[in-house]
Design a protein that fits this description.
CATH architecture of the largest domain in chain B: 3-Layer(bba) Sandwich
Order of helices and strands of chain B: HEHEEHEHEHHEEHEEEEHEEEEHEEEHHH
Structural class of chain A: mainly beta
Shape of chain A: globular
Number of domains of chain B: 2
Distance between the termini of chain A: 19 Å
Largest interface: A-B, 28 and 27 residues
CATH class of the largest domain in chain B: Alpha Beta
Helix content of chain B: 25-40%
CATH topology of chain A: Folate-binding fold
Oligomer: heterodimer
CATH class of chain A: Alpha Beta
Radius of gyration of chain A: 13 Å
Mean pLDDT of chain B: 96
CATH topology of the largest domain in chain B: FAD/NAD(P)-binding domain
Number of domains of chain A: 1
Low-confidence stretches of chain A: none
Distance between the termini of chain B: 45 Å
Structural class of chain B: alpha/beta
CATH superfamily of the largest domain in chain B: FAD/NAD(P)-binding domain
Bound molecules: flavin-adenine dinucleotide, zinc ion
Number of helices of chain A: 1
CATH superfamily of chain A: Folate-binding superfamily
Largest sheet of chain A: 4 strands, antiparallel
Order of helices and strands of chain A: EEEHEEE
Chain lengths: 80, 424
């Protein structure tokens, strides 16, 4: 994984993006949402920001074992 | 099964010389997996091996196995930058790490194996007056606990580390530093091998190529582990799997307060002695901790790569940051070539401190959450974790490092960074 495809800017070097946090499972308690992680080996849902590009906030679904990006979209809509 | 490794001494070296072939034996014997054990330790990294060693040595528990999915020392114990220190701010952390440092000082003798503890000094450099205040605070906290710490002004830094004085003006210049003279380095592979050899000599079975995939339970207690080599019964189970701690939670149906991130290290071609201590330099454009290995290579590491990963593929931009900071600190090394670089998976916690506690069942224990700093903890963790597992009560040294602290609000947040594993 060396690049992310921003829905607005296209494929860009990974260092243009900033990982913010991993998202909790649906229905997680407030405690769990802050402090716990599912730690799945094949699926991680995350918030990133294209800080050195268009600055859009992105929801990224990745496979953390292979590095493959499974889905990427703007938070709150704008599916690519 | 081969003969046990002989006891090492100056005399044994002489005997080895005369005996020619046949004196040297494998460090741990090729044990065969049994049906069941009193304690099964999962993971033959530093923490798993040290825990098994202390279970056998201090508590007389003889039926102990260490199950390792790959090889002894394949994980972070063989991938780290080998720095040991106890210069932590929080009492819960500095007393623990100081216990570890005192054990490092005598570990070669205890294990009868040279782990090459080198108290060359660990020097945190300050680049502003504000940072000096932070270092003074940390140094004072250490001194109150009886730990060695010296606050150095700029001339003091240049006297201690003359290699820094040789360089011209820096954009982010050095104001002073905090030195822990007893901090230093330890040969990481020797730690894994030394503990494996000593544990094996006490009758611990070290089983490589055996991955634990699940925990079998009956009536609310664990009865053993499911492995790639079949079921193994266990009276008690200790997970010490570092970067795979999150996966243990999944085996037990728990979400744990950990997230796995990559950390890289790199080493240059060997040069003559230049860097006499461990130097830590954090300019705005990166972070580097740099040492020189006994073979002469300049060893460097820095920040985490920055996002969850199990790939062990380091990102190029982080390598650039680390090397950039190293060259800003020591322009003399700018023309050296990097020989190797690698990454390891780190089980980052939500407060940056480790966890040793029971996990879901009374007889299942977690030794994990070592973040990027668990190498230095190995001797203290092995002793304390073994006591916990053998007696059922957590010793004072690790009582604060329980799993419940995240819910109760008693976080051990050294950096005050909040619940973001990537920022610890
Ligand atoms: C690049 C880098 C630099 C570092 N620098 C330092 C430093 O300078 N100082 C310091 O104090 N710390 C440092 N660390 C951190 C330190 O290396 C780790 O915190 C520590 O080694 C982790 O504990 P361990 O030795 O038990 O882990 P490991 O050696 O990773 O042991 C865990 C073992 O568990 C095995 N395992 C995993 N899952 C299973 C399973 N399901 N079944 C069976 N076996 C399993 C793995 O194969 C592995 O061998 C660094 C880490 C990295 C990556
Ligand atoms: Zn963009």
């Amino acid at each position: 994984m060396n690049r992310l495809v921003c829905p607005f800017c296209g494929a860009r070097e990974l260092e243009e993006f900033l990982f913010h946090k991993t998202l909790p499972e649906a229905g997680a308690s407030e405690y769990s949402a802050v402090y716990e992680r599912t730690n799945r080996l094949d699926d991680s849902l995350e918030h990133w920001q294209h800080v050195h590009g268009c600055r859009a906030w992105l929801e990224v679904r990745r496979n953390p074992s292979s590095g493959d990006v499974l889905e990427i979209r703007m938070i709150g809509g704008g599916r690519n | 099964m081969s003969a046990a490794s002989p006891r090492y001494s100056a005399w044994s070296l002489l005997r080895a010389r005369l005996a020619g072939e046949g004196f040297w034996q494998p460090l741990w014997s090729g044990a065969r997996l049994k049906d069941g054990y009193d304690v099964v330790v999962v993971g033959a990294g530093g923490h798993g091996l040290a825990t098994a060693y202390h279970l056998a040595r201090d508590h007389g528990i003889k039926r102990v196995a260490v199950l390792e999915k790959r090889l002894v020392g394949y994980g972070n114990v063989g991938r780290n930058t080998t720095i040991v220190r106890s210069n932590y701010l929080l009492p819960e952390n500095h007393y623990f790490y100081e216990d570890s440092l005192r054990r490092w000082e005598r570990l070669s003798r205890d294990l009868n194996y040279n782990v090459m503890y080198s108290p060359r000094g660990v020097l945190d450099l300050a680049l502003s007056d504000g940072e000096m205040i932070g270092l003074a605070r940390r140094g004072n906290a250490m001194r109150l606990a009886g730990i060695d710490a010296e606050l150095l002004d700029r001339p003091g830094v240049m006297k201690f580390a003359p290699e820094l004085a040789a360089a011209g003006p820096r954009r982010f210049d050095i104001v002073g530093g905090l030195l822990q003279p007893r901090g230093g380095t330890v040969r990481h592979d020797a730690v894994a091998w030394g503990y494996a050899r000593a544990a094996s000599a006490l009758g611990v079975d070290i089983i490589e190529d055996c991955e634990v995939q699940g925990v079998r339970t009956a009536a609310g207690v664990a009865t053993g582990v499911e492995t790639t080599r079949g079921f193994v019964g266990a009276g008690r189970i200790v997970f010490a799997v570092a970067g795979h701690t999150g996966a243990v939670g999944r085996m037990l149906g728990l979400n744990l307060p950990v997230e796995t991130h990559l950390l890289q290290a790199m080493v240059t071609e060997p040069i003559k002695p230049l860097i006499g201590s461990v130097l830590i330099y954090v300019p705005p454009h990166g972070e580097v901790y740099v040492t020189q290995s006994d073979r002469g290579g300049v060893v460097m590491g820095g920040f985490l790569d920055g996002f969850p990963s199990y790939t062990r593929e380091g990102q190029w931009y982080r390598l650039e940051d680390v090397v950039g900071a190293a060259v800003a600190l020591l322009p003399q090394i700018a023309s050296l070539r990097i020989l190797r670089h690698w990454a390891g998976t780190n089980d980052m916690t939500m407060d940056g401190s480790f966890i040793i506690d029971r996990l879901r069942h009374d007889n299942v224990f977690l030794n994990g959450g070592w973040c990027y700093g668990g190498f230095k903890a190995i001797p203290a963790s092995g002793a304390a974790c073994a006591t916990f597992v053998a007696t059922g009560t957590a010793p004072d040294l690790i009582r604060a490092h329980n799993l419940g602290r995240f819910a109760s609000g008693h976080l051990l947040d050294e950096r005050g960074g909040g619940p973001f594993p990537v920022r610890q």
